[in-house]
Design goal:
The chain is of the alpha+beta class and about 290 residues long. It has 4 helices and 14 strands.
Length: about 290
């Protein structure tokens, strides 16, 4: 009896590894790396190739990994289904490069050719290959959208490389960006606002008069809203941190926030949000819905 019981126990233990393999199948995509390798030159070449790929509708111009993962508005899509297959007349593009995390971000603005867009695309690289293409695509109907206003103000701003004495440590940029995003749930966070500062939100702009004393501290919406799934990219040369995140929950609206830091303070903010809401006009003002009758 004892021998039978021991044999049954041994068989059960032997079966455990096989049972553990009955989980979800392995991902068909190239895995994201804990510590990817890249150079800044590789990242810059990739963003140049991406802009040209979007202009021509030919994503093959990028150095794609055989198992590259494509996402649009934070949902997996087939390579042939993304907007990158459509040739778009890009009016202005700005790119960020993080050679520690091997990520890039390109803000591309389209005002002509039919449908206007403001696109924020992340590329993730490892060993010279793009392993993930992740585009946030905003268009008419999305939060405060106006591509004409976005082009007007984005192209006029200076987000060029900083002098060494102007730079902010990456850890402080991450802390400051988190303080801003935490402010949607806790209005007492210590956000490192600087002056002057301008916020470009979908197309709405907070400093349309070019006031040298303008502040971005114009308030956050009331209520408690959690900003989750934060993914960071830090361009130390430009003093910019870009955060991909979701509003409200892990299935909330896809969002991109970029913060420009100078001397440890936020001096510029760009946001793209795939959320329905009011629109902006061509001058960057908010178009308010008419009041209901009665």
């Amino acid at each position: 009896m004892i021998r039978t019981t021991l044999l049954a126990g041994l068989l059960a233990c032997a079966a455990t590894p096989a049972m553990a393999q009955n989980g979800p199948p392995p991902s068909p995509y190239a895995p994201l790396q804990d510590r990817p390798t890249c150079t800044r030159d590789e990242l810059k070449a990739a963003t140049d190739a991406y802009v040209e790929a979007q202009r021509t509708g030919n994503i093959a111009l990028l150095p794609l990994d055989a198992k590259v993962h494509f996402l649009e508005n934070m949902t997996t899509v087939e390579r042939g289904a993304g907007l990158w297959n459509t040739a778009l007349p890009i009016a202005h593009a700005m790119s960020l490069h993080d050679d520690k995390r091997c990520k890039t971000f390109t803000e591309a603005i389209v005002t002509q050719g039919g449908t206007p867009y403001v696109i924020g695309t992340r590329l993730y690289l490892h060993q010279g290959k793009v392993i993930r293409v992740d585009s946030i695509v905003t268009k008419t109907g999305d939060w405060l959208f106006n591509a004409n206003a976005y082009l007007k103000y984005s192209s006029a701003e200076d987000w060029s490389d900083l002098f060494k004495y102007q730079k902010t440590p990456p850890s402080e940029m991450i802390r400051g960006a988190n303080a801003y995003l935490d402010g949607f749930a806790d209005k007492f966070t210590d956000i490192p606002w600087g002056t002057p500062c301008a916020r470009l939100e979908g197309g709405a702009y907070t400093n349309r008069t070019n006031d040298p004393h303008a502040s971005c501290e114009v308030g956050l919406p009331p209520g408690v809203l959690y900003i989750v799934n934060r993914d960071y990219l830090v361009d130390e040369e430009k003093g910019v941190i870009n955060v991909f995140c979701r509003f409200g929950s892990s299935t909330g609206g896809p969002d991109s926030h970029s913060f420009r830091f100078i001397d440890g303070k936020i001096r510029g903010v760009h946001t793209l949000s795939v959320l329905p809401g009011p629109q902006a006009d061509d001058n960057g003002g908010i178009v308010r819905a008419p009041a209901a009758a009665g």
